[in-house]
Amino acid sequence: MGKLITVVGNSGVGKTTFTSKLCEIGSFTPFLEITEDKPFLQKFHDNRNEFCFANQVDFLLYQAEREKLVKENDMVGVLDGGLDECFHVFTKRFHQKDYLDDEEFLLCERLYSILRLLLPSPDLIIILTAPDKLIAERMRKRGRDIDIERSQDLIELKKLIEKWLAKNTSVPTIYIDASQEDPTYSSIIEGLVKDIKIRLNI
């Protein structure tokens, strides 16, 4: 059975970059979130209320399928995101914003609950943290529009992440300060890989 690591954190905090570097140094298998082939994503961007439910169901299944693939193979797989973050953070945020009505949210919750019941939990969660204002500034530098609504999303997403992780008692966690201007994490990455291998007994 494979070992599963999920990398979580706020939008724009640098999960993809971190996941890629961790896998490069640790010789782990990266599972980066690929959105180009998601059938409802553009429809969701064009009409959030009409297509949010279909988009979230698709993403919950997508994350579950990736986790299943890791667990069924002899590998250490590192997921950019994961099933738990997809539900506890993004699905809940869309419900808060009324993109999902109560009935749609409850269906997503039922789907998440049965998927998590059928799938083993991650072996390790790595949480990237950085101040909201710093994340917003980095996103601006990358050419992403940051308006008042988007800035508020960063604040609320952070609250949802903290609330979810406060209730997480079964999966070991490692917190990484992503606020430093060190995109390759050169000062910590080798020590982190050694720590992970000890924790996962690999």
Question: What is the topological layout?
Answer:
Layout: E1 3-9, H1 15-26, E2 29-31, H2 41-46, H3 48-71, E3 76-80, H4 83-96, H5 102-118, E4 124-129, H6 132-141, H7 148-167, E5 173-177, H8 189-200
Parallel strand pairs: 1-3, 1-4, 2-3, 4-5
Key features?
202 residues; alpha/beta; Rossmann fold; 5-stranded parallel sheet; 8 helices; 57% helix
Q: What is the level-2 CATH architecture name?
A: 3-Layer(aba) Sandwich
Please summarize the sheet with the most strands.
Answer: 5 strands, parallel
What is the number of helical segments per DSSP (H or I, 4+ residues)? 8
What shape does the CA trace take? globular
Write up what this structure looks like.
The protein has 8 helices and 5 strands; from the N terminus they run βαβααβααβααβα. It has 202 residues and is an alpha/beta fold. The protein has one domain (3-200): Rossmann fold, CATH 3.40.50. The protein starts with a strand and ends with a helix.
Describe the structure concisely.
The protein has 202 residues and is of the alpha/beta class.
